Amino acid sequence: MLRLHHLPNSRSQRVVWLLEELQIPYEIIIHGRSGPQQLADPSLAAVHPLGKAPVIQDGDITLAETGAILDYLITAYGKAHYKPMGDVPSWRDYLYWVQAGDASLMPYLAMAQSLHRFDQSLPWPLSQASRWLHTKFASQYWAPNLGGFLRAADQHLAKHRYFAGTFGPCDVLLEFMFNAMLGKLINHDSVPHISQWLQQVQSREAYKTALQKGQWKPAEFLRQWAFLRHYSHAVFSRVD
Ligand SMILES: N[C@@H](CCC(=O)N[C@@H](CS)C(=O)NCC(=O)O)C(=O)O
To answer: Is the CATH number of domain 2-82 3.10.450.10?
Structure first.
């Protein structure tokens, strides 16, 4: 049976969700984290040299990287109808949005989170000075980029119910990032169409089942990303 190596409250939750959507049988192996940067336990590096989640093992295949895993599952398990094909508008939307989140949004979120964890690991008053510097840097550097991404996504969703025609891999990939920003950078006033789309996709049965199987802890997730509220002004000075 296919095995998924998983870290709770992480991007690998997306693979749990897709497996539930596609109704592919799987075994889930939960790994732990430790240290100030909350790095994965060495048990993950024993599965794949990257030492990160998600990783799947299917027969003699071992595969990392969420986007690659999603594509593998759709192709290897005969679920090709799940992604648009052919030179139609939904396929062109698919090509863009299936890449865009992990390429142009997640790096900013991950960098901000690493800097935040670093600040928290320092003794007072160094932690305060470091936080001040990082907040200033982030507000000037990455927040405007993030604002541009939110504006593009909101405008797209104003005209489309899902990112690529019908519900599919783009929605599964992007939900994690928008969920991390929910209540801080995403709300009905700031980006109404993203906010509405989030409610829609999070009400899916497969999504809810995946939260349980992936040992998702909503309070912990909120706590991990709460620091994003400091950047609201810097982000939205670009969205209006
Ligand atoms: N681009 C990779 C990112 C993988 C990644 O960084 N996973 C994180 C969880 S969100 C992780 O394993 N962190 C623990 C560590 O870096 O040790 C993907 O989307 O699969």
So the answer is: no
